[in-house]
Design a protein that fits this description.
Layout: H1 11-35, H2 43-63, H3 71-89
Helix pairs in contact: 1-2, 2-3
Amino acid sequence: MKLTATVCDGRALRQFTAAQTEAAAGVFRARAAHENVTPRISVDVLARAWVGEQLAVLHWWLETDPRPMEPEEATRMLLDLSLRGRYWANGFEGEPPAPDPV
């Protein structure tokens, strides 16, 4: 049965996502404090985005038959994305351009 076909109200997934987001935010805050840096974006946004991309890739991987890649390869890609960013992942070199003012 596909994950999306499961009959439920989504409460368990929302609770899991909230718990993982809270845990990730704690890790990100502790890491920033340890390294004496100030995050460039809200740690809450950062944690929510990180957990969301992990869950989205896991969901895609579990529902794709045959599996699109080995789990180690998906893990490596997610680690590269986390460490190097989307700019690098899209093939660009150097520093990303400054964002347009909002």
